[in-house]
């Protein structure tokens, strides 16, 4: 016997006469068993049935939500972890730097970065900005950012062969990535 029929039986057992008809000869000996009535016999009490259905759905929802919430130990039950992207670290650049290698960077006649490694440098500058410049920064020209800009430039020089004359270009590119 399911939860709903049990709940209706219990409710009817508590408020007997208007809700339960006498058992038919073919039914069980107890007039209050689940076989003693059907939903059509409860039509006089639709309010009670609606109340029980509402309560049953509420309990079902509550039990379903408990599966998605934390238990007492703080771990999650039956819930897939949300996949997040994480921090961009440019592993190929870090590995090459750790080996003592530096990437060559080429410039066009218009002083723009070109391939090979131009887009790699631009992406690396973006990741350095996220690491060394606070997100609350309002103005790239702020004197408070001087230390962060120096760190960015030193990290670029550790990983790429870049002439000192290109520092202004790289720092401006970092400002665009902010």
Which features would summarize this protein structure in a list?
178 residues; mainly alpha; 2 domains; two-stranded parallel sheet; 7 helices; 49% helix; 4% strand; elongated
Description:
With 178 residues, this protein is mostly helical. It has 2 domains: 3-68, no CATH class; 91-177, no CATH class. Helix content is 49%, strand content 4%. The protein has 7 helices and 4 strands. It has helices at 3-14, 16-19, 46-68, 91-98, 118-132, 146-159, 167-177, and strands spanning 103-104, 106-107, 113-114, 160-161. A two-stranded parallel sheet has the order 1-4. A two-stranded antiparallel sheet has the order 2-3. A hairpin with a 5-residue loop joins strand 2 and strand 3. The model is unreliable at 10-16 and 30-42 (pLDDT under 50).
Compact overview of the structure:
The chain is mostly helical and about 180 residues long.
Distance between the termini: 64 Å
Q: Over all CA atoms, what is the radius of gyration?
A: 36 Å
Output mean pLDDT: 73
Biggest sheet features: 2 strands, parallel
| Approximate helicity band | 40-55%
Helical element count? 7
Spell the H/E element sequence.
HHHHEEEHHEH
- Ranges where pLDDT stays below 50 over 5 or more residues in a row are 10-16, 30-42
> What is the subunit organization of this protein?
single chain
User: Largest beta sheet: what is the strand line-up?
Assistant: 1-4
Our estimate of the beta-strand percent is under 5%
Shape, please? elongated
Number of strands: 4
Structural class: mainly alpha
* Domains, number: 2
């Amino acid at each position: 016997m399911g939860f709903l029929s049990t709940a209706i039986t219990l409710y009817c057992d508590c408020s007997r006469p208007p809700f339960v008809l006498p058992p038919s000869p073919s039914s069980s000996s107890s007039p209050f068993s689940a076989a003693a009535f059907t939903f059509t016999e409860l039509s006089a009490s639709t309010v009670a049935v609606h109340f029980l259905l509402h309560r049953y759905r509420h309990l079902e929802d509550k039990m379903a939500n408990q599966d998605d919430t934390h238990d007492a130990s703080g771990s999650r039950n039956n819930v897939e972890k949300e996949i997040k992207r994480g921090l961009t670290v440019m592993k190929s650049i870090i590995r090459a730097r750790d080996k003592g290698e530096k990437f060559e960077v080429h410039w066009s006649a218009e002083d723009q970065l070109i391939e090979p490694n131009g887009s790699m440098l631009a992406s690396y500058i973006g990741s350095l900005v996220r690491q060394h410049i606070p997100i609350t920064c309002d103005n790239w020209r702020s004197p408070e950012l001087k230390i962060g800009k120096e760190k960015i430039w030193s990290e670029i020089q550790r990983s790429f062969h870049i002439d000192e004359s290109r520092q202004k270009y790289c720092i401006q590119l970092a400002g665009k990535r902010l």
